[in-house]
Amino acid sequence: MDGEVFTRIFTDYTLRTVALGTAALGFVSGALGSFAVLRKQALLGDATSHAALPGIAVAFLLTGSKAPLVLVLGAALAGWLGTLAIMTIVGLSRVKYDTALGMILSVFFGVGLVLLTFIQRRPDATQAGLDTYLFGQAATLLDRDVKTIAGLGAIALLAMALLWKELKLLSFDPDFGATLGFPMRGLDIILTSLIVIAIVIGLQAVGVVLMSAMVVAPAAAARQWTDKLGIMVPLAGVFGALSGVTGAVISSSATRMPTGPVIVLCVSAVAVASLLLAPNRGLFPQWLRSRRQRHAVRKEAVLSDLRALEEQHAGEAPGHSAAVLRMMAPNPAGVSPRLQELSDRGWVAKTGSDEWTITEEGLRALEAQLGSGGDER
Amino acid sequence: MPETSRRADANPKADSTAVEVADLTVAYRDKPVLWDIDLSVPMGVLMAIVGPNGAGKTTLIRSILGLVRPTAGQVRILGKPYAKQRRLVGYVPQRGSVDWDFPTTVLDVVIMGRYGELGWIRRPGAAERRAAEEAIEKVGLTDLADRQVGQLSGGQQQRVFLARALVQDSLVYFMDEPFQGVDATTERAIIDILRTLRDEGKAVIVVHHDLQTVEEYFDWVTLLNVQRIASGPVDEVFTDSNLRAAYGGRAALFSRELAEQRERAKGGDGP
Ligand SMILES: Nc1ncnc2c1ncn2[C@@H]1O[C@H](COP(=O)(O)OP(=O)(O)O)[C@@H](O)[C@H]1O
Ligand SMILES: [Mg+2]
């Protein structure tokens, strides 16, 4: 993409509105999505967003209004009902979680599609644009939409910040939390409601079909980079915001293609890059590390090889060629640097041009190493 | 180092009953898991709950703590229902009950033990941090305090949970298999901590799976297999016939091993 598109964010009023709106919804869904991902409820977001569709349709049918607050309220109510229905089905029957989820998702989404089709067949023109809720169209975001997104998002984030320690407890060890007296079921409902808010404010721009990616992908990406919840949550927010803005700007300036798929491509790129490249948990660094470990020649190994040689040749003059040690090591190139390190510690000594012997100190160090046996792990 | 308990005022009389369970019955769907359990545990004891796999040991603890709704029966902690006594109860869940890959550090998890005292919304501060660091030192994890909990060994994770219970600063402790996946050295360290708690007059109730160490570690024992087989001081209750009643066919093996162990112990005492 050429950079001009992005500088237009600052000059073009419409584009700026779109960028602000998608940044806000991306941040909120990324941050709150972290909790859904950590609680292994990633799919719940999918069900919630699909279940929201009939809510949007019904809200429009009842009020005839496309005011963002009205539609978002309808979406939230339906999404929340769908989520509650899943929890109830699982609680009261022997139906498994994923089955209940699939059932609710398809039933609600199906009803939503039927209603949407019905609305679009109506002769009046007021319905124009409701179908953008399927795949999203960030270009349709107006000032009032952005205000709604930002207002509701701020409320959700504030609640999350206030209940930070309770939500952490809920996500890590709900049973322990219950013994402390916190109503974990109530907290579960609060968190679910916050996630519902995060989802419904994104529906206009991202669409019901793909919104769940905004809940899952930024969080999954952020988890790769940090081991602290207090960093993971804002980082997921930033990933979500960046993907949102990038996707929205590309889609609305280039061809007016639906925004949802473009945003999802952006956020997926972030997630894939994180899965592959993040320093500790990334697949590529892990692969590098295991390769290095396989080839690494450990100091202790060189030391114990040297001792073995000395024991075999007891009574002869001390000193063994590094060439022999290299033959004993898994990776010959590693031997010389290790010998140098060992001699710096005074554990081996040079006896000839490249001949080495183990010192008293080296013997003691080796004993200590073997004796301690390392960590219990 | 002077140990000032935050609960010095609440210290109970040694003769008060820590846990009183009456007619407790628990069923999952239609299957009874605990049947008509009566139990009375005094303060100042270190008690093992033993029984075969699936005997209902975990369920017993969870229903005492209000995590499982019993079909019938009452539970009292220091004379009052559990809901009124939460602050006096500490809990070490089974290690496998949480996802250790969660992005949180040792210190962070241990501080959770203070959440109940903090109540809603208030964040942990310096005092909570200090209490947690003290407990972490007691379990010997000071060097690992800032590690993500998934990077610890099983035994170290077990000690994290123990430290979290220690900062709860409770009077009655429930621990579900705290020795699971722990090496011999760590087991010693943990039992020492449990003994210290007992010696401070607290009650420590531990689900335990190793019959060999019951007599060495504990002064009370409850044998459980859906029903309560026996409960009381180890030397009165931990008998071959009770073990056979609790373990059924498998008891023969256990009791023979135990008998041999006792023989050896006696032989070792002699000149
Ligand atoms: N949540 C549950 N739902 C249904 N059955 C359960 C549940 N938890 C435990 N059980 C059953 O209850 C019995 C007792 O389990 P548990 O208390 O975990 O035993 P223990 O801790 O002594 O091994 C087992 O037969 C187990 O299968
Ligand atoms: Mg158990």
Strand percentage of chain B lies at 15-25%
Largest interface (CB within 8 Å) is between: A-B, 29 and 35 residues
- What composes the largest sheet of chain A? 3 strands, antiparallel
Tally of alpha and pi helices of chain B:
11
Largest sheet of chain B at a glance? 6 strands, mixed
Small-molecule binders here are: adenosine-5'-diphosphate, magnesium ion
Q: How do the strands of the widest beta sheet of chain B line up side by side?
A: 6-7-8-3-9-10
Q: If you compute it from the alpha carbons, what radius of gyration of chain A comes out, rounded to the nearest whole angstrom?
A: 30 Å
Characterize the quaternary organization of these chains.
heterodimer
Domains of chain A, number:
2
Structural class of chain A: mainly alpha
Strand content of chain A: under 5%
Proportion of helical residues of chain A: over 70%
- Strand tally of chain A: 3
In the CATH hierarchy, the architecture of the largest domain in chain A is Orthogonal Bundle
Characterization of the model:
The complex is a heterodimer of chains A (377) and B (271). Chain A has 377 residues and is an all-alpha fold. Chain A is built from 19 helices and three strands. Chain B is an alpha/beta fold. In chain B, strands 6-7-8-3-9-10 form a six-stranded mixed β-sheet, with helices on both faces. A four-stranded antiparallel β-sheet of chain B has the order 2-1-4-5. In chain B, α5 (126-138) packs across α6 (154-167) and α10 (240-247) packs antiparallel against α11. Chain B is globular. The N and C termini of chain B lie far apart (41 Å). The A-B interface holds A 38, 40, 162-166, 168-169, 171-173, 175-182, 223, 226-229, 232, 375-377 and B 62, 65-67, 83, 86, 89, 91, 93, 97-99, 102-105, 108-109, 112, 115-116, 118, 120-121, 123-124, 148, 152-153, 155-156, 164, 183, 185-186. The structure holds adenosine-5'-diphosphate and magnesium ion. Residues 57-58 of chain B line the site of magnesium ion (MG).
